[in-house]
């Protein structure tokens, strides 16, 4: 069961979680999303909430609805999502992170970047 917060509507939180899955390639571009019933059961949510989340993803250009078949991941959805997430990070989260590092007296030299696995 998922943990939901009061910061934003649950359907938007679900859309964000499903979008994160898309960034990880699940499901891959061109593939079908799990059904509303499957997602509702997985996240213990009302199917109407799941429908709203999927519609938000359609509106964002990540999914398309195929009548009678379900929702499918659009080509280049990951690329579009990555670009918008990168922009949001650089505009919103990065300035907050830099301010916190400055408050704590942490410099770039104090930070280590994780080594890439081979």
TrEMBL record:
CDD domains according to UniProt: WHTH_GntR (cd07377)
This protein's UniProt keywords: DNA-binding, Transcription, Transcription regulation
One Pfam family in the UniProt entry: GntR
Domain HTH gntR-type: start-end pairs: 8-76
Annotated InterPro entries: Tscrpt_reg_HTH_GntR, WH-like_DNA-bd_sf, WH_DNA-bd_sf
Record's protein name: GntR family transcriptional regulator
Species this chain originates from: Deefgea tanakiae
């Amino acid at each position: 069961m998922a943990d939901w917060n009061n910061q934003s509507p649950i359907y938007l939180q679900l859309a964000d979680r499903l979008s994160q899955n898309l960034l990880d390639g699940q499901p891959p571009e061109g593939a079908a999303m799990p059904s509303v019933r499957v997602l509702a059961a997985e996240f213990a949510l009302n199917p109407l909430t799941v429908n709203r989340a999927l519609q938000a993803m359609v509106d964002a250009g990540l999914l398309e609805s195929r009548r009678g078949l379900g929702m499918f991941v659009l080509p280049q959805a990951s690329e579009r999502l990555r670009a918008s997430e990168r922009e949001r990070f650089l505009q919103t989260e990065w300035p907050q992170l830099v301010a916190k590092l400055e408050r704590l007296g942490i410099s770039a030299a104090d930070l280590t970047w994780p080594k890439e696995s081979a």
